[in-house]
């Protein structure tokens, strides 16, 4: 989005009749969609093969290999999504000191959300309660609390 030249080239390519007006995203997703269609095809082949035949053994081996490939693809997609979340979060969060590297290969964002922090003050016989928003970011290896910039 930040590179105007890239956007112009992308728009020109996507409008080309050879691309059939498909977006870049659809071309990136297409190989994964084909893999999942292959899984369905192999399942149908397995239903129609004779039990105990050489064809059943080969189709079962192909199906197992395809299952492993799909599992690996899904894990890599999750890893990339997690890395993208960390990059986005690191752009939003400003640390007072840069001793905490937010982006790490092993770090994953598990849960995040806004909470309300309550501060209790007792300057007199009556309690005074102040509420302020804070954000909780739970990672697989640490917990980060942040507050909006004032």
Automatic annotation (TrEMBL):
Pfam families: RhoGEF. It comes from the Eukaryota. This is ARHG5 factor. PROSITE patterns: DH_1, DH_2. It comes from Xiphorhynchus elegans (elegant woodcreeper). Coiled coil: none annotated. GO terms for molecular function: guanyl-nucleotide exchange factor activity. Residues 1-76 form the DH domain. One of its GO terms (cellular component) is cytoplasm. Gene3D superfamilies: Dbl homology (DH) domain, Pleckstrin-homology domain (PH domain)/Phosphotyrosine-binding domain (PTB). One of its GO terms (biological process) is intracellular signal transduction.
């Amino acid at each position: 989005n930040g590179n105007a030249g890239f956007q112009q080239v992308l728009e020109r390519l996507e409008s080309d009749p050879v691309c059939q007006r498909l977006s870049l995203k659809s071309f990136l997703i297409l190989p994964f969609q084909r893999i999942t269609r292959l899984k369905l095809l192999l399942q149908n082949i397995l239903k129609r093969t004779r039990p105990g035949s050489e064809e059943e053994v080969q189709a079962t081996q192909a199906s197992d290999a395809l299952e492993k490939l799909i599992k690996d693809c899904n894990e890599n997609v999750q890893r990339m999504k997690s890395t993208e979340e960390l990059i986005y979060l690191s752009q939003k969060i400003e640390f007072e000191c840069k001793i905490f590297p937010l982006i790490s290969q092993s770090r994953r964002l598990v849960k995040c959300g806004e909470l309300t922090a309550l501060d209790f003050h007792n300057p007199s016989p009556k309690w005074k309660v102040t509420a302020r928003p804070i954000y909780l970011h739970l990672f697989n290896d640490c917990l980060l609390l942040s507050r909006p910039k004032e």
